[in-house]
Amino acid sequence: MPFARLTTRADLASTLRLAGPVVAVEIGLMAMGAVDTMIVGRISGQAVASVAIGHAYFWVCAVFGIGVLMAIDPLLSQAVGAGDEPAVVAAVQRGLVLAGVLSVVAGLALVPVEQVLRFLRQPPEVIPDAARFTRVSIPGLLPLYAFIVLRMMLQARHRIAPLVVAIVVANLANLALNLVLVFGRFGVAPMGITGSGVASAISRYVLLVGLCLAAWPDVRAVVRPWRSEVLALRPMRRILAVGLPIAVQYELEINAFAVVAVMMGWVGATAMAGHQISINLASLTFMVPLGVSAAAAVNVGRAVGAGDRVGVRRAAGAALVTGVAFMTLSGVAMLAMPYPLARLYTADPAVLATAVALLPLAGLFQVFDGVQVVAVGILRGVGDTRTPMVINVLGFWLVGVPVSAYLGLRTPLGPQGLWIGFVFGLAAVAVLLLLRVRSRLRAETRRLSVDGPT
Predict the structure, then answer these.
(1) Sign of the CA dihedral 387, 393, 396, 398?
(2) Which value, in Å, is the radius of gyration of the alpha carbons in the chain?
(3) Which residue has the higher pLDDT, 118 or 101?
(4) 269: part of which helix (H) or strand (E)?
(5) What is the arithmetic mean of pLDDT over 128-156?
(6) How far apart are CA 31 and CA 37, in angstroms?
(7) Contacts of 74 (CB under 8 A, 6+ apart)
(8) Which residue of 163, 184, 233, 385 has the fewest CB atoms within a 10 Å radius of its CB?
(9) E strand or H helix at 32, and its extent?
(10) Is pLDDT above 60 for 256?
(11) Cβ(186)–Cβ(43) under 8 Å?
């Protein structure tokens, strides 16, 4: 793309310096869920299924609030770029207010978990434990959302080290709490699966407190003194106008993948196991472009705030080059070494054969996945959140899911057909988002504001 040719080594270095620690934070957040699953795996396979379903339901409900809070991201990065400290303070404080409200909304959505799981015809034997795990996780919503707000503020300032410290401490706490609460140690009665949910909730408070301690000068500057005007309704409505499309986009994407997973279950247990291996590997590599996307939103937003049109294009180009280069390498690895990679997860011949058949398709969609998530970060940096939502609907729900359903359920392709739908859907989203990025960066970019007249 034309703006990519403006990218310099300094732009690439800036992207990598910010993206690297952000990737570590994303992996750390994933690791907390993985530890929960690994610990309860010592109880039984049914316990693993219960925690997996509980985690899935928790994040389906929680991700909507995360999407709404992402509206704070361009406000912060653009304000930092403009040197507008009062706007930074206002954005953080409004984000914390929204975090409190959204934690209540998401918590209410989590309460009827048992009824929802029964409606979705999940295995009856795992529903009670999955429901208990989900309900005891509800108190962890508030610190999770507050952490996200403070994290965006620190990322906008390029202050990433406190985030890494906090995520490491929280993971250690989660491991220790799981061992104590699940199995019972130091005079604490064993709580089983419920203990794992309690451990997760407590660990999210450790995450928030750890971040506040590690970055107290930055945090204190944006929370003291508290400004009563941040409760004004008009700016909040404008923030919601930016954040709701992101929330809808997140829900549409996560549910598109969930629908394909359900269809994979209809094909059979072996197909589902092979799918789980392939999607796990793809999710791990996806953490890198996800970090690059966050870096793109920050660097592009800062350039917009500074009124630097050339800087906007350079930051966008650096992010795309970095994200696509990494995903190309990981895609080549999956295409070239599907058997050794799948063998890391299982020795079952049937599951192994399915995973080996799916991993080359995972390698193929890696590049498209990297392009689309980085492009979303660029567009968020310039304050464009509605277009990615529309493109998400078109690509995933009008292309990807129908192609998956037809090829996977109506042709002999089976599991491979379902994954070919992934490729088509992600390709459509990636191409449309690239066209939108090109259009937005050719036009004048203006700073996003929620204060003042419309």
Answers:
(1) negative
(2) 22
(3) 101
(4) helix 269-305
(5) 92
(6) 10
(7) 242, 297, 301, 304, 380, 381, 382, 383, 448
(8) 233
(9) helix 9-40
(10) yes
(11) no
Contact 426, 365 (CB under 8 A): yes
Name the one residue in this structure whose structure tokens are 């996806």. Answer: 286
Per the prediction, the chain carries an average pLDDT of 86
Tell me the backbone φ, ψ of residue 69, rounded to 5 degrees.
-65, -25
The Cα–Cα gap between 133 and 127 comes to 10
Would you state the pLDDT for residue 454? 45
CB-side exposure of 264: number of CA atoms within 13 Å?
30
CB 372 within 8 A of CB 429: yes
Q: Are 188 and 181 in contact (CB under 8 A)?
A: yes
**Ramachandran sector of residue 414 (left: φ over 0; alpha: ψ -120 to 50; beta: rest):** left
Domain ranges (residues) in the chain: 2-442
DSSP H or E stretch at residue 129? helix 127-137
How big is the chain, counted in residues?
454
Q: Which residue has the tokens 């507008």?
A: 84
pLDDT at 173: 94
Rounded to 10 degrees, the C-alpha dihedral 92/96/97/102 comes to: 130
Tell me which of 397 and 2 has the higher pLDDT.
397
The whole-number average pLDDT for the span 89-101 is 94
**Which single residue is written with the structure tokens 């598109």?**
256
pLDDT of 128 > 80? The answer is yes
User: What are the tokens at 419?
Assistant: 């994954």
pLDDT at 50: 75
The per-residue pLDDT for 403 is 92
Q: By C-alpha distance, which of 388, 379, 290, 381 is closest to 330?
A: 290
At residue 174, does pLDDT exceed 60?
yes
pTM of the model: 0.83
C-beta of residue 239 within 8 angstroms of C-beta of residue 450: yes
At 408-423, the pLDDT tens digits run: 888 988 888 988 988 8
170, containing H or E segment: helix 161-183
Q: How far apart are CA 63 and CA 145, in angstroms?
A: 10
The residue type at 167: I
For residue 325, the one-letter residue type is A
pLDDT at residue 379, rounded to an integer: 92
Q: Are 303 and 311 in contact (CB under 8 A)?
A: yes
